[in-house]
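Action item from last week, closing it out:
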Amino acid sequence: MLTFKRVDKCGKKATQIFLPVIDGKISDQTIEKLFDLNLQDELAFFAPSDKPLKAGEIFDIPVSAAGYKCERLSLVSLGKLTALDIRAAGAAVGRKLRGKGDEFFIGLNLKDAQAKSFLISANLGNFTWSLKSGTKEFSAKVEVTNISEEAIESAQVVSDAVNRARQLIHTPSNIKNPEWIAKQAKKYANGVKVEVKSGAALKEFGGLRAVGGSSPKPGPRFIKMTYAPRKANAKHIVIVGKGISYDTGGISLKRPYDIMIPMKSDMAGAAACLAVMSALKDIKANVKVTALLMCAENAISATAQRPGDVITHYGGKTVEVLNTDAEGRLVLADGLAYAVKNLKPDYLIDIATLTGSATLGLGKQYAALYSRNVKWVKDLREAGEISGDRVWHMPLIDDYEVALESDIADINHTADKGDFNAGSVTAALFLEQFVDGVNWAHLDIAGVGRAESDAGENPKGGTGWGVRLLLEWIGSFK
């Protein structure tokens, strides 16, 4: 974890100094004078002018100066200063500081928005998580110059929130269950009101009970987190997160079995919601925000739901269950219906690791975004480009709705009628049946919510995707 502090110049306790190289050029007269260097000449030794630097490349120079602890000067390439280059460079610095607990200095000669992005990526790249015995946690202090206090505070809040979501996702499922997630919501409330429903209080939540009934101890949890700003007549945003603390697939057991191993991350949507709520007070959000965390474990037991069951969701809609491994949409449906009936949202958005189909279409770089509100889609796409959590607008194809037909219930939940080969689209169409015309968007983060390797900003495992996007968008309301 990195802790940022704004300073006017490099402190004498910094053990390493980082300076940005932009489009192959570098200059810092204060540092050059301090260490008696010509930085451009030093850079030429590592990177000849005919060899363009890649964003994130770092070159170390041993240095010393009387009264200063610094022993190493690191030149960091920011490429051509594109948004992607800035994030890559920040992540590279964060990774270089992993396992170090000293004080460091970064001389950023960037605009506030660029510097903020760099620092967020640095803290994300610095993230590690382990339960190995004897593991030490390091918190490096990073002094930063040429950035406003507001930008540095925002970078700290946002990056800490993302890393908080990652900590929740990485926690193994023998520790993490719906009750545990509810305790974390209270732990990180930060001025947010938290209400938890369980047991008999969930009698109307047919989807949540059907999925969570397979693991009755402790059973499912409906977690409601509410942030209320001081501003009168503020817009109301409701976010609904899929919180499956572990997903075996239920009776429709996942095959091959090894794809179950990362399923502790199937609550990444709820983790993102929780992390966003924990940061709203600190970013001074001007909108009312309610998060509904739909938490359950999808296990195999004598009380597990069966293919062919019919359940009644919140609000009364009946659904024929055909595959118990498509459980995420069942818990989300209850949350969406609850929000429509009780919360009167101006904006209703759900976030979930929902379908492998989204990954097939978009890979690991973009989340699938579904909404019929074109103006809102534009706003979310812009927030995604700024924050780094990028989205791609996907179509809600009305012709595919026939796939939801059922002979015995209002709809079936896997859209098995016909053969449209569009699993992410039909899953979104299923969820739309529960929003009753409310202004709604769906984020399918199955591809972006987990990383297969430890590289760049992301550790292997949960990425905390969605936290940056939602905080950027929520923060845009004035």
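Closing note: The mean pLDDT is 95.
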